[in-house]
Amino acid sequence: MRLYASAPPHRPTTRLPLVLAAVLLLVGGLVLALPDRAGAAADSLISQGRPATSSSVEDSTFGPEKAFDGIATTRWASTEGVDPQWIKVDLGPSATVSRVKLVWEVAYAKTYRVEISADGSTWTRLATETAGNGGTDDWTGLTGTGRYLRVYGTARGTSYGYSLYTVEVYGTTSTTPPPGGAFTVVAAGDIAAQCTASSSSCAHPKTAALAQRIAPSFYLTMGDNQYDDALLSDFRAYYDKTWGAFKAKTRPVPGNHETYDPAGPLAGYKSYFGAIAYPQGKPYYSYDQGNWHFVALDSNSFDDAAQIQWLKDDLARNTKGCVAAYFHHPLYSSGGHGNDPVSKPVWQILYGAKADLVLNGHDHHYERFAPQDPSGRATADGIVEIVGGMGGAEPYDIETVQPNSQKRISGPYGVLKLDLTDTTYTWQYVGTDDQVKDSGPTYTCH
């Protein structure tokens, strides 16, 4: 049990004289009032309640957020019998770390590393344990700066997995975005089925809770926000009770289900979201964050000459170094709907403007593709497409695997966690059990 990582406590070999012992008892109250180490008063706890992810969980009751909830009896637990495993916290937007305190359950790590990262991809080691024996490990005197901190276990101390009651990170945080303009976005499509949290099988309350735990700069939706016909009454009864909690920070686009409203195509969608979905007076719009230009499109009307001309003009005006577009219908998909050629003309415009990333829904699964051109040819200067249609609607099976498809997951509900900087992007598909189901490569913007 490590109490002081930088200098183990001295254990005296002789008993204190009785007089000295009495004096210590008299000032005991003062001793108890002192911090548990010299200089601790300068530290602040910066990890409590922050978004957390992990390599795995034993089950949904042992999610990674339990290690950061400030409750001594709750804990994170990984899958049993597998090395390595990790737990990670987003301290965002940037932090300087001086101390990390770990309280292990019986399932402890014999060897592990404490690491810090600015982007969640490149890690710097802060501390290394090679002979852990559980209990409490209190790493002090650390010096590290970054957004993400993780505990990376490489060898278990028992036949179980890894389990932590508490991960406490101390230091200072800044409200100023770190160099590189790093920020996080949560994205999902095909979200609110006509059900509520009273039903254990209802998924959109769970994906909404996950999205909130990640605490991104903002949220994207890739259409089919409300099933089945996207009535305003249904938006209020279902979507608003879950994803509506962060409506003001959401940048939505419509899907085909938003066109089924008997009151008129997109009528309920427009009434519910208002100017959030129509900031420029149309169901398509653009905005900037850091060095990124985001283009939100209505793929129900890709035959609308006005939208196509607007897209060309918008991209011609763009001065940002990275470009992401999102709309409902994917050009390429291995799911039940398959490829949708309605999106090809838009892809050609985006490709000509050196766009980097396209996000879609429509097919109810997760899928990522290698960079490709509008004709489906793999190329380093191509567009990376991600299908993220697992926001809450019933999953679709994978049917015909498309060329350049690198990973496909159908079944587990979840969201995309996109980590972007001024020059790069990467992402994770995170399930509602807080387990990372897939991690994308780190790409450099064109």
From TrEMBL:
Annotated Pfam families: F5_F8_type_C, Metallophos
Organism this protein belongs to: Streptomyces wedmorensis
InterPro entries tied to this protein: Calcineurin-like_PHP (IPR004843), FA58C (IPR000421), Galactose-bd-like_sf (IPR008979), Metallo-depent_PP-like (IPR029052), PAPs-like (IPR039331)
Keyword Transmembrane: no
Domain of life: Bacteria
Protein name per the record: Discoidin domain-containing protein
Record-linked PANTHER family: ACID PHOSPHATASE RELATED, PURPLE ACID PHOSPHATASE
F5/8 type C domain segment(s): 33-172
Keywords for this protein: Signal
Keyword Signal carried by entry: yes
